[in-house]
Sequence to fold (355 residues):
Amino acid sequence: MSLDEFLLLILIHTQLRRLLINDFLLFQILFMSLLVVCTTVATVYAISSFVLLRKPHLIHRRRRPAFIARNIAHRGGAAESIENSLLAFDKGLAHGVEMLELDCHLTKDQQAVVHHDASLQRTTDHLGYIKDIEYDKLPRINSKIHLYYNSDITISSDNNNTSNDDLLRIPLLKAVFERYPTTPINIDIKINDDELIKQVSNLVQQHQREHITLWGSFSHTICRKLTIQNPRIIRFCSLKEAAGIVFAYWIGLLPFLPLTPGAFEVPIPGEVFQKITEQINWKYRIIFYLLERALNNKSMFAHLQRRGIPVYVWILNNDQEFQYAFTKMGVTGVMTDYPTRLQKYLATNQHEFLL
Fold:
Protein backbone atom coordinates (compact mmCIF):
# COMPACT_ATOMS: atom_id res chain seq x y z
CA MET A 1 0.00 0.00 0.00
CA SER A 2 1.36 3.38 -1.02
CA LEU A 3 1.69 6.32 1.32
CA ASP A 4 -1.06 8.21 -0.49
CA GLU A 5 -3.44 5.28 -0.11
CA PHE A 6 -2.59 4.96 3.56
CA LEU A 7 -3.18 8.66 4.17
CA LEU A 8 -6.50 8.41 2.30
CA LEU A 9 -7.64 5.56 4.54
CA ILE A 10 -6.70 7.56 7.62
CA LEU A 11 -8.68 10.52 6.27
CA ILE A 12 -11.73 8.37 5.54
CA HIS A 13 -11.54 6.76 8.99
CA THR A 14 -11.29 10.18 10.63
CA GLN A 15 -14.29 11.49 8.71
CA LEU A 16 -16.37 8.40 9.54
CA ARG A 17 -15.47 8.73 13.20
CA ARG A 18 -16.51 12.38 13.17
CA LEU A 19 -19.80 11.45 11.49
CA LEU A 20 -20.49 8.72 14.06
CA ILE A 21 -19.68 11.08 16.91
CA ASN A 22 -21.93 13.74 15.42
CA ASP A 23 -24.74 11.21 14.88
CA PHE A 24 -24.40 9.97 18.45
CA LEU A 25 -24.44 13.51 19.76
CA LEU A 26 -27.51 14.24 17.62
CA PHE A 27 -29.19 11.10 18.95
CA GLN A 28 -28.40 12.15 22.51
CA ILE A 29 -29.84 15.59 21.90
CA LEU A 30 -32.98 14.18 20.34
CA PHE A 31 -33.37 11.61 23.13
CA MET A 32 -32.91 14.20 25.85
CA SER A 33 -35.33 16.56 24.09
CA LEU A 34 -37.90 13.80 23.83
CA LEU A 35 -37.34 12.89 27.47
CA VAL A 36 -37.83 16.51 28.51
CA VAL A 37 -41.02 16.79 26.44
CA CYS A 38 -42.42 13.51 27.79
CA THR A 39 -41.51 14.43 31.36
CA THR A 40 -43.10 17.86 30.96
CA VAL A 41 -46.27 16.40 29.46
CA ALA A 42 -46.46 13.71 32.14
CA THR A 43 -45.92 16.29 34.88
CA VAL A 44 -48.57 18.63 33.48
CA TYR A 45 -50.95 15.67 33.05
CA ALA A 46 -50.35 14.43 36.60
CA ILE A 47 -50.74 17.88 38.15
CA SER A 48 -53.84 18.65 36.08
CA SER A 49 -55.36 15.28 36.96
CA PHE A 50 -54.61 15.81 40.65
CA VAL A 51 -56.15 19.28 40.68
CA LEU A 52 -59.20 18.41 38.58
CA LEU A 53 -59.87 15.30 40.63
CA ARG A 54 -60.50 17.64 43.57
CA LYS A 55 -61.86 20.61 41.63
CA PRO A 56 -63.81 19.15 38.68
CA HIS A 57 -65.93 22.31 38.44
CA LEU A 58 -62.98 23.96 36.66
CA ILE A 59 -63.88 22.09 33.45
CA HIS A 60 -67.21 20.36 34.21
CA ARG A 61 -70.47 22.01 35.12
CA ARG A 62 -71.66 20.54 38.41
CA ARG A 63 -74.92 18.62 38.07
CA ARG A 64 -77.74 19.34 40.47
CA PRO A 65 -79.58 16.11 41.36
CA ALA A 66 -83.33 16.57 41.87
CA PHE A 67 -83.12 14.39 44.98
CA ILE A 68 -80.64 12.62 47.23
CA ALA A 69 -81.38 9.40 49.12
CA ARG A 70 -79.45 7.97 52.06
CA ASN A 71 -81.76 5.07 52.93
CA ILE A 72 -82.69 3.00 49.88
CA ALA A 73 -84.91 -0.05 50.35
CA HIS A 74 -83.57 -2.92 48.23
CA ARG A 75 -86.65 -4.66 46.82
CA GLY A 76 -88.59 -2.59 49.31
CA GLY A 77 -86.64 -4.03 52.24
CA ALA A 78 -86.40 -7.73 51.43
CA ALA A 79 -85.40 -8.82 54.95
CA GLU A 80 -88.19 -6.92 56.71
CA SER A 81 -91.18 -7.75 54.52
CA ILE A 82 -92.22 -9.65 51.40
CA GLU A 83 -89.88 -8.33 48.71
CA ASN A 84 -91.13 -6.16 45.85
CA SER A 85 -94.65 -5.98 47.27
CA LEU A 86 -96.80 -3.00 48.21
CA LEU A 87 -96.65 -4.38 51.74
CA ALA A 88 -92.85 -4.02 51.76
CA PHE A 89 -92.96 -0.58 50.15
CA ASP A 90 -95.52 0.69 52.69
CA LYS A 91 -93.50 -0.63 55.60
CA GLY A 92 -90.22 0.75 54.29
CA LEU A 93 -91.59 4.24 53.71
CA ALA A 94 -93.08 4.20 57.20
CA HIS A 95 -89.58 3.57 58.59
CA GLY A 96 -87.54 6.28 56.94
CA VAL A 97 -86.92 4.93 53.43
CA GLU A 98 -86.07 7.74 51.00
CA MET A 99 -85.99 5.73 47.77
CA LEU A 100 -87.45 2.39 46.71
CA GLU A 101 -85.39 -0.01 44.61
CA LEU A 102 -87.37 -2.45 42.48
CA ASP A 103 -87.21 -4.66 39.39
CA CYS A 104 -89.47 -4.89 36.34
CA HIS A 105 -90.71 -7.54 33.92
CA LEU A 106 -93.45 -7.76 31.29
CA THR A 107 -96.42 -10.13 31.48
CA LYS A 108 -97.86 -11.99 28.52
CA ASP A 109 -100.40 -9.20 27.98
CA GLN A 110 -97.62 -6.57 28.02
CA GLN A 111 -98.14 -5.21 31.52
CA ALA A 112 -95.08 -3.87 33.37
CA VAL A 113 -94.97 -5.56 36.79
CA VAL A 114 -92.66 -5.35 39.79
CA HIS A 115 -90.83 -8.61 40.49
CA HIS A 116 -87.17 -9.56 40.75
CA ASP A 117 -87.04 -13.03 39.21
CA ALA A 118 -88.27 -13.87 35.72
CA SER A 119 -89.60 -17.08 37.28
CA LEU A 120 -92.48 -17.19 39.74
CA GLN A 121 -91.35 -20.26 41.66
CA ARG A 122 -89.36 -18.68 44.48
CA THR A 123 -92.01 -16.18 45.56
CA THR A 124 -95.26 -17.98 44.63
CA ASP A 125 -94.35 -21.69 44.29
CA HIS A 126 -95.88 -21.47 40.81
CA LEU A 127 -93.87 -23.19 38.08
CA GLY A 128 -93.82 -20.66 35.30
CA TYR A 129 -92.50 -17.37 34.01
CA ILE A 130 -94.04 -13.91 34.21
CA LYS A 131 -93.67 -13.40 30.46
CA ASP A 132 -95.91 -16.44 29.78
CA ILE A 133 -98.84 -15.44 32.01
CA GLU A 134 -101.40 -12.64 31.71
CA TYR A 135 -101.45 -10.22 34.61
CA ASP A 136 -104.92 -11.15 35.88
CA LYS A 137 -103.82 -14.77 36.05
CA LEU A 138 -100.61 -14.19 37.98
CA PRO A 139 -100.55 -16.02 41.34
CA ARG A 140 -100.30 -14.06 44.57
CA ILE A 141 -97.01 -13.84 46.40
CA ASN A 142 -96.76 -16.28 49.29
CA SER A 143 -97.26 -14.85 52.78
CA LYS A 144 -94.01 -16.59 53.75
CA ILE A 145 -90.91 -16.72 51.57
CA HIS A 146 -87.24 -17.44 52.14
CA LEU A 147 -84.86 -14.48 52.19
CA TYR A 148 -83.28 -14.44 48.76
CA TYR A 149 -79.68 -14.80 49.96
CA ASN A 150 -80.26 -17.01 53.00
CA SER A 151 -82.80 -19.84 52.86
CA ASP A 152 -82.48 -20.32 56.62
CA ILE A 153 -84.39 -17.05 57.13
CA THR A 154 -88.13 -16.90 56.44
CA ILE A 155 -89.86 -13.58 55.80
CA SER A 156 -93.53 -13.45 56.81
CA SER A 157 -96.40 -11.06 56.37
CA ASP A 158 -98.96 -10.40 59.08
CA ASN A 159 -101.42 -13.24 58.40
CA ASN A 160 -103.92 -11.77 60.87
CA ASN A 161 -104.33 -8.64 58.75
CA THR A 162 -106.71 -9.46 55.90
CA SER A 163 -105.82 -6.25 54.07
CA ASN A 164 -102.38 -7.72 53.44
CA ASP A 165 -103.89 -10.06 50.85
CA ASP A 166 -104.31 -7.20 48.38
CA LEU A 167 -100.81 -5.93 49.15
CA LEU A 168 -99.29 -9.31 48.33
CA ARG A 169 -100.36 -9.33 44.72
CA ILE A 170 -97.50 -8.84 42.27
CA PRO A 171 -97.89 -5.09 41.70
CA LEU A 172 -98.19 -3.28 38.44
CA LEU A 173 -95.55 -0.61 38.03
CA LYS A 174 -98.43 1.77 37.32
CA ALA A 175 -99.96 0.96 40.72
CA VAL A 176 -96.63 1.66 42.45
CA PHE A 177 -96.36 5.06 40.76
CA GLU A 178 -99.95 5.90 41.73
CA ARG A 179 -99.47 4.81 45.34
CA TYR A 180 -96.18 6.67 45.83
CA PRO A 181 -96.38 9.72 43.54
CA THR A 182 -93.61 11.72 45.25
CA THR A 183 -91.28 8.89 46.29
CA PRO A 184 -88.02 8.49 44.34
CA ILE A 185 -87.82 5.06 42.74
CA ASN A 186 -84.81 3.18 41.35
CA ILE A 187 -85.86 0.78 38.57
CA ASP A 188 -83.67 -2.12 37.48
CA ILE A 189 -84.58 -3.22 33.94
CA LYS A 190 -83.85 -6.93 34.09
CA ILE A 191 -84.29 -8.02 30.48
CA ASN A 192 -83.40 -6.63 27.06
CA ASP A 193 -86.97 -6.03 25.90
CA ASP A 194 -87.79 -2.97 23.81
CA GLU A 195 -91.45 -3.10 24.79
CA LEU A 196 -90.61 -3.20 28.50
CA ILE A 197 -88.31 -0.20 28.10
CA LYS A 198 -90.99 1.69 26.19
CA GLN A 199 -93.68 0.83 28.76
CA VAL A 200 -91.58 1.94 31.72
CA SER A 201 -90.64 5.18 29.97
CA ASN A 202 -94.27 5.93 29.10
CA LEU A 203 -95.43 5.26 32.65
CA VAL A 204 -92.74 7.52 34.08
CA GLN A 205 -93.79 10.28 31.70
CA GLN A 206 -97.51 9.80 32.34
CA HIS A 207 -96.99 10.12 36.08
CA GLN A 208 -94.67 13.13 35.64
CA ARG A 209 -91.85 11.61 37.64
CA GLU A 210 -88.86 11.78 35.32
CA HIS A 211 -87.08 13.96 37.88
CA ILE A 212 -87.53 11.44 40.73
CA THR A 213 -86.86 8.22 38.84
CA LEU A 214 -83.59 6.38 38.30
CA TRP A 215 -83.39 3.52 35.86
CA GLY A 216 -80.64 1.33 34.49
CA SER A 217 -79.29 -2.19 34.14
CA PHE A 218 -76.16 -4.27 34.55
CA SER A 219 -76.26 -4.64 30.76
CA HIS A 220 -74.61 -1.85 28.79
CA THR A 221 -76.75 -2.75 25.77
CA ILE A 222 -79.91 -2.14 27.78
CA CYS A 223 -78.50 1.10 29.23
CA ARG A 224 -77.82 2.47 25.76
CA LYS A 225 -81.43 1.74 24.82
CA LEU A 226 -82.68 3.48 27.96
CA THR A 227 -80.76 6.65 27.11
CA ILE A 228 -82.11 6.63 23.56
CA GLN A 229 -85.67 5.94 24.72
CA ASN A 230 -85.77 8.75 27.30
CA PRO A 231 -82.63 10.74 28.11
CA ARG A 232 -84.60 12.85 30.62
CA ILE A 233 -84.84 9.95 33.07
CA ILE A 234 -81.69 9.76 35.19
CA ARG A 235 -79.78 6.58 34.36
CA PHE A 236 -77.37 4.76 36.64
CA CYS A 237 -74.24 3.20 35.18
CA SER A 238 -73.95 -0.23 33.62
CA LEU A 239 -71.23 -2.62 34.78
CA LYS A 240 -69.21 -1.76 31.67
CA GLU A 241 -69.46 1.96 32.42
CA ALA A 242 -68.55 1.39 36.06
CA ALA A 243 -65.47 -0.56 34.98
CA GLY A 244 -64.53 2.20 32.54
CA ILE A 245 -64.86 4.86 35.22
CA VAL A 246 -62.69 2.82 37.61
CA PHE A 247 -60.03 2.24 34.95
CA ALA A 248 -60.03 5.92 33.99
CA TYR A 249 -59.63 6.87 37.65
CA TRP A 250 -56.59 4.64 38.17
CA ILE A 251 -54.77 6.05 35.11
CA GLY A 252 -55.65 9.63 36.02
CA LEU A 253 -57.99 10.19 33.07
CA LEU A 254 -61.32 10.37 34.91
CA PRO A 255 -61.20 14.12 35.72
CA PHE A 256 -61.01 14.95 32.02
CA LEU A 257 -63.86 12.70 30.81
CA PRO A 258 -67.52 13.68 30.32
CA LEU A 259 -69.83 11.14 32.00
CA THR A 260 -73.24 10.03 30.73
CA PRO A 261 -74.69 8.23 33.80
CA GLY A 262 -76.44 10.38 36.36
CA ALA A 263 -75.78 7.99 39.25
CA PHE A 264 -72.97 5.59 40.12
CA GLU A 265 -74.31 2.36 41.63
CA VAL A 266 -71.84 -0.36 42.61
CA PRO A 267 -71.59 -3.20 45.13
CA ILE A 268 -69.66 -3.16 48.39
CA PRO A 269 -69.35 -6.79 49.51
CA GLY A 270 -70.92 -7.44 52.88
CA GLU A 271 -72.84 -10.28 54.48
CA VAL A 272 -75.01 -10.73 51.37
CA PHE A 273 -71.95 -11.16 49.16
CA GLN A 274 -70.30 -13.50 51.65
CA LYS A 275 -73.38 -15.70 51.88
CA ILE A 276 -73.93 -15.88 48.13
CA THR A 277 -70.26 -16.68 47.43
CA GLU A 278 -69.82 -19.32 50.14
CA GLN A 279 -69.79 -22.16 47.64
CA ILE A 280 -67.65 -20.64 44.90
CA ASN A 281 -64.03 -21.53 44.20
CA TRP A 282 -61.42 -19.67 46.28
CA LYS A 283 -59.79 -18.37 43.10
CA TYR A 284 -62.97 -16.54 42.17
CA ARG A 285 -63.19 -15.15 45.69
CA ILE A 286 -59.74 -13.62 45.26
CA ILE A 287 -60.76 -12.14 41.91
CA PHE A 288 -63.94 -10.70 43.44
CA TYR A 289 -61.93 -9.27 46.33
CA LEU A 290 -59.45 -7.56 44.00
CA LEU A 291 -62.27 -6.18 41.88
CA GLU A 292 -63.96 -4.85 45.00
CA ARG A 293 -60.74 -3.15 46.13
CA ALA A 294 -60.36 -1.48 42.74
CA LEU A 295 -64.02 -0.53 42.47
CA ASN A 296 -64.49 1.03 45.88
CA ASN A 297 -62.30 4.06 46.37
CA LYS A 298 -63.17 7.06 48.53
CA SER A 299 -61.23 9.50 46.36
CA MET A 300 -63.04 8.36 43.22
CA PHE A 301 -66.42 8.49 44.99
CA ALA A 302 -65.65 12.03 46.20
CA HIS A 303 -64.77 13.16 42.67
CA LEU A 304 -68.03 11.82 41.26
CA GLN A 305 -70.04 13.54 43.98
CA ARG A 306 -68.20 16.82 43.40
CA ARG A 307 -69.48 16.56 39.84
CA GLY A 308 -73.02 16.11 41.17
CA ILE A 309 -73.20 12.36 40.55
CA PRO A 310 -74.53 10.48 43.60
CA VAL A 311 -72.80 7.25 44.62
CA TYR A 312 -75.19 4.54 45.80
CA VAL A 313 -73.81 1.19 47.01
CA TRP A 314 -75.45 -2.18 47.55
CA ILE A 315 -76.28 -4.40 49.43
CA LEU A 316 -75.32 -3.55 53.04
CA ASN A 317 -77.29 -4.87 55.99
CA ASN A 318 -75.70 -4.09 59.36
CA ASP A 319 -74.22 -1.18 61.30
CA GLN A 320 -70.62 -2.19 60.61
CA GLU A 321 -71.29 -2.19 56.87
CA PHE A 322 -73.22 1.10 57.06
CA GLN A 323 -70.34 2.74 58.92
CA TYR A 324 -67.79 1.47 56.41
CA ALA A 325 -69.83 2.84 53.49
CA PHE A 326 -70.57 6.26 54.94
CA THR A 327 -67.35 6.86 56.92
CA LYS A 328 -64.61 5.01 55.05
CA MET A 329 -66.02 5.30 51.53
CA GLY A 330 -67.98 8.55 51.82
CA VAL A 331 -70.93 7.31 49.74
CA THR A 332 -74.15 9.21 49.09
CA GLY A 333 -76.57 6.46 50.06
CA VAL A 334 -76.93 2.75 50.79
CA MET A 335 -79.26 0.11 49.40
CA THR A 336 -80.27 -2.29 52.15
CA ASP A 337 -82.58 -5.19 52.91
CA TYR A 338 -82.96 -3.75 56.43
CA PRO A 339 -84.13 -0.14 56.00
CA THR A 340 -85.26 0.09 59.65
CA ARG A 341 -81.72 -0.73 60.79
CA LEU A 342 -80.29 1.83 58.42
CA GLN A 343 -82.74 4.47 59.60
CA LYS A 344 -81.72 3.87 63.22
CA TYR A 345 -78.05 4.04 62.25
CA LEU A 346 -78.51 7.34 60.41
CA ALA A 347 -80.49 8.78 63.31
CA THR A 348 -77.72 8.02 65.81
CA ASN A 349 -74.63 8.74 63.68
CA GLN A 350 -73.68 12.07 62.18
CA HIS A 351 -71.84 12.21 58.85
CA GLU A 352 -70.65 14.94 56.54
CA PHE A 353 -71.90 14.40 53.01
CA LEU A 354 -70.56 15.84 49.76
CA LEU A 355 -74.04 15.54 48.25
